[in-house]
Amino acid sequence: MTQTSELYRPDHELFRDSVRRFMAERVGPRLEAWAERGCFDPAIFREAGALGLLCPTVPESLGGPGADLLYSAVLLEEAAPYSNFGLSLTMHSEIVTNYLLHFASPQLQAQWLPRMVTGEAIGALAMTEPDGGSDVKAIRTHAVLEDGHFRLNGAKTFISNATTCDLVIVVARTEPDAGARGISLLVVDTTLPGVRKGQPLKKIGLKSQDTGELFFEDVRVPADQLLGERGQGFVYLMKELPWERLQIAVSAVAAAEDAYRQTLAYVRDRRAFGQAVADFQHTRFLLAELKTEIRIGRTFVERCLADLMAGRLDAQAASMAKYWCSDLQGRVVDACVQLHGGYGFMAEVPIGRAYVDARAQRIYGGTNEIMKELIARDL
User: Closest Cα to residue 322, out of 250, 249, 377, 251?
Assistant: First the structure.
């Protein structure tokens, strides 16, 4: 859906073609049914895995293609018009996978990554808690080491892939009085006794995505399922957050581009007072403003992606991209709904779905207010 650029190579564009077909043929026709049930069918992950669309950065030795992060950026861009469905796939392919690639033992990697590549095992990250919001240091879920196992207790909410996941990386406190240094990450098999999944949460947008609650009651997690070192969980989270937040920016710009494309086609065809809506000066000026802002967002995101590939993307730039681009998406879809008139407020019209789906972008991944707080710390 996005314009090609110098950032992407021919192999990325071939991958884009595959993703575009997959979204149009396998995802688009199912969105309405998934929205009715409040969750996607987990079989879609196996379909994506069979086509080589999952976990692009996993090395060949673990069953993956050993590709680069721009493959995931392509997936996010092409999936953005489909209720940002790429965020479900990249939660699995990039966020969970990266924690395993960067911090897990070889045994843990061999246990999970080959099955994640094929879509046989779906991954999730459980960070947010009912009382914690974006404050990672306020984590109450705790794990006590006993006889070679961590006894895990706590609750998580607003978790992507919560009801469909087979493994979940749980952010837990392993040292009660150590602050940020008391947080560890545990890889939890969701078939373990004591793990309970709630029903999919009823949301105003992104209704086809799996967002839910997870509960842990005296779950005995083998000690070898600790991700990396004990007490280093907060450090690991901070290392991974820039790319996670940039993913939201990538999808936000792509969704804005798609909303603009839809609206441009609509106002050219729609007539009012004897002329096309596109012929009114207000419409032309508004579209010119939106096109300019979208181009600014695209340029910024591609610069951040280039920095990411060069290993120099910093947390401040990622926070800027996340907040500004998700704000941009909100402004664009709101203006596009207005240009659609009454049809823009209809649930069956794509721009209406884009409007409600856009709202969560300013909340998850750290609220935009938190992003500004992080940026301000370096003033």
Answer: 249
